[in-house]
Amino acid sequence: MLVNNAVIPEAKQATEFFSAPEDGPFVMVNLLKFKANAEYADGSDADLTGRQAYDRYAEGVGKLVEALGGSFEFSGEVTGILLGEVEELWDLIAMVEYPSYASFMAMVMSPEMAAIDHHRSAGLAGQLNIRTKSNPL
Fold first, then answer.
1. pLDDT tens digits for 34-64?
2. Can you tell me the distance from the alpha carbon of 122 to that of 107, in angstroms, rounded to the nearest whole number?
């Protein structure tokens, strides 16, 4: 299995993701890998770690998620792996519930997201975003 962290999705991948039929709430599993040092395009805040830059993004995106009716379900540091193998472990896992594709897309395309996204790019070495649907037990 190929594992390829990325910071921005390829156009084809984004088109396929957002063209799926609307089917209500979903949870996005975010596997995050941080840069050792923040890398802002303008060279600012070079004294920050990648995690600190990402935390700036997380604060802002948290407000956006809550405003659209979503919620943060879980966030935790990755401390080990029991089964399987990856070249390098992620640093953090976060699970966020969104009410719909439409609400997620509205958030992603909003001016408020555009205003904070540079912190995400400055802090992340890469990530995987995995859309999940709950199964009734």
1. 999 999 999 999 999 999 999 999 999 999 9
2. 20
Q: Are strands 26-34 and 92-98 parallel, antiparallel or unpaired?
A: antiparallel
pTM for this prediction:
0.89
Q: Give the burial class of 54: count Cβ atoms within 10 A of its Cβ; 0-12 exposed, 13-18 middle, 19 or more buried.
A: buried
Please return the burial class of 48, using the count of CB atoms within 10 Å of its CB with bins 0-12, 13-18 and 19+: buried
Per-chain mean pLDDT for the chain? 93
Helix, strand or coil, per DSSP, at residue 95: strand
CATH of 25-132, one of 3.40.50.1820, 3.30.559.10, 3.30.70.100, 3.30.559.30: 3.30.70.100
